[in-house]
Design brief:
There is one protein chain. Helices cover 41% and strands 19% of the residues. The chain starts with a helix and ends with a helix. By secondary structure, it is of the alpha/beta class. It is built from 8 helices and 12 strands. The structure holds zinc ion (ZN). Zinc ion binds next to β1.
Length: 251
């Protein structure tokens, strides 16, 4: 009887360990406006996700939606998980700016005051909703640069409960941190480097993996596909950020 109890315990432990092996694809920099059209790389990954019966997430730079392109907006709507598609779209800010002022480096979400940052967050949420009818639940800052003012600013957009690669002081939202990288430089994927890091670090819990698929050439796309296949073979489940948070909340 004791052996049976032990076996049950082991089975439960194995099950919850397997549960934690979740990969979330964080694909940045969607633009969908007349001036900045949707890059083909996003469509390519979406087609791959459909064929693989899997999901990805994509971050939208929302000032591109002030003059939306009808075809690109139709693509967003058709591919959104809310509409039965394979993509969770998330708030990647308003203008994705970085600049220097009086010799100081500033970013959209690192440096400006909380009110300015809140305006950017809210404009992004509102414009996205207006143009697509959808609601953002997750946020990731441009260049992953954010500060304490961003933490305060996030309170103005309570529908966003998930923060991808947040600053260390964030405690109010569900935080999804960085473990491994698939890109060796922005827009360049390396299967060889990822496989090496993966074998060395042996991650066993949620991985949020970032890529810039709008910039990927054939080699980068093919290496991404190989990385996804490696993880699938190794027992990783792929979810969107919201799906993961919902699942983790139920445990
Ligand atoms: Zn970005």
């Amino acid at each position: 009887m004791r052996l049976l109890a032990l076996l049950c315990l082991l089975a439960v432990a194995a099950l919850s360990a397997a549960d934690d092996k979740v990969v979330i694809w964080k694909l940045d920099d969607v633009k969908a406006g007349e001036k900045k059209r949707l890059a083909d790389g996003f469509k390519r990954v979406a087609e791959w996700a459909k064929a693989e019966k899997t999901v990805v997430t994509m971050g939208i730079i929302c000032d591109s939606l002030t003059q939306p392109n009808a075809e690109d907006v139709a693509w967003i709507k058709a591919n959104a998980v809310e509409n039965g598609g394979v993509i969770e779209f998330w708030n990647h800010g308003w203008d994705h700016r970085s600049w220097t002022e009086a010799g100081k480096q500033l970013w959209e979400f690192r440096g400006p005051d909380a009110a300015t940052q809140a305006k950017h967050l809210k404009n992004a949420c509102d414009t996205f909703k207006q143009v697509t009818g959808l609601t953002f639940h997750a946020f990731g800052a441009g260049f992953n640069q954010a500060d304490d003012a961003t933490i305060a600013a996030m309170d103005s957009v309570p529908e966003m409960t998930i923060w991808m690669y947040p600053p260390k002081n964030e405690t109010k939202r569900k935080v999804l941190g960085r473990t491994l990288n698939i890109e060796v430089a922005t827009g360049k994927v390396s299967y060889a480097k990822f496989a090496q890091d993966y074998a060395a670090k042996k991650p066993a819990s949620m991985m949020l993996l970032q890529g810039h698929c709008g910039m990927w050439n054939d080699d980068s796309f093919n290496d991404f596909v190989k990385i996804a296949a490696l993880l699938k073979q190794d027992g990783w489940t792929t979810l969107t950020a919201s799906q993961y948070v919902e699942k983790a909340g139920k445990k």
